[in-house]
Amino acid sequence: MSRAIGIVVFAVAGLLLTSIGGAAIAAAPLTLPALFVLVRMHPTRAFRIAGALLGGLTAAEVVWAAVYVVFGEDGAAIWLVPLVAGVLSGYVMQRTTIRVPA
After folding, report:
1. N or C: which end of the chain has fewer CB within 10 A?
2. Residues 63 and 70 sit within 8 Å (Cβ to Cβ)
């Protein structure tokens, strides 16, 4: 059951990331925690990597929007800060797991 829910959440997160208009930014307060919990609870490596990739991309988009509002388009911060935030959040999501008792 958790696998089917995870696939649905992954599909929704991917669809939001590809949408025009920043839907992933608006939905990030819901999708990031959902992705984090699903990635931590699922035992397969491929599932964790896919979830960490989607979570990292979502986090990078949210941080990009924040940097854009604060600093504008000038400078390296517009791409460097979101890149670092996305890589770090993806790494944390991929590396942390919960052992669910059977």
Report:
1. C
2. no
